[in-house]
Amino acid sequence: MNLVIQSPEPIADSHVKPLTALARAKRIDRDAAGHVLRLTDAEPLQRADIDAYCGTHRLDYAFIDPSLRLADFGLVAMDMDSTLITIECIDEIADFCGLKNEVAAITEASMRGEIKDFNESLTRRVALLKGLDASALDRVYEERLRLSPGAETMLAGARAAGMKTLLVSGGFTFFTEKLKARLGLDFTRANTLEIVDGKLTGKVVGEIVNAEVKARTLRETCAQLGIDPSRAIAMGDGSNDLKMMAAAGLSVAFRAKPVVREAASLALNFVGLDGVLRLF
Predict the structure, then answer these.
(1) What is the pLDDT of residues 71-101, one digit of tens each?
(2) Which of 88, 124, 187, 240 is the most exposed place for a label (fewest CB within 10 A)?
(3) Quick check: is 8 in a domain?
(4) Is residue 280, in this structure, part of any structural domain at all?
């Protein structure tokens, strides 16, 4: 396997020899900027040692089949909150009715997998928003929503490789549709907040986008594109992304909860979303 080591900062020369030894690699190459090391013929059985070393030194690593190319994939599927963007939208909406801490605690427990029923978790949180003026959604988008580091570079690279893009979220269509238009995304799927007379009713309209729906959406989108799900890359951070990630050929845990990092093909804990492009 190739072992790809990445860092937001130039990787110090002092890491080259220990990483080569730990990985039992035959050759090591460095990119021009010094942010990426690529070790060829690395031993995947050394993963535990590599994980410990990289965790200590704040380096991201991934074992990648050297025959893989980005163009081998046809779809990149992304979670929205805390993946494509840096915030949890529902927590920020709740801040406008003084309930951010309460809602954020439920969100965190749900993403860690401590609340098993996502539908119940979402229903409880949305109910707390009842009566809030819908203009709060605009304020969250304009004042608080920020793209994750490397998001636009990653999307441009995916498009250049011929891939389609899917944003599938347990969040809300208000935000996914704005991001679709802004970023030129091909497909989106999310929950619809009910709004009556300019105020949130505290309810979601239609089917809730939970873990099963996320996985189904990925499979249906692949079918629509005429590709096997093994040709999809799925990116997420929370437990409700696990089934979607399991359905894909390559899964990327981005700034993710421990349960997601353990299940994913690889984790990006320090570099941006564009770290995906440098794997191949």
Answers:
(1) 999 999 999 999 999 999 999 999 999 999 9
(2) 124
(3) yes
(4) no
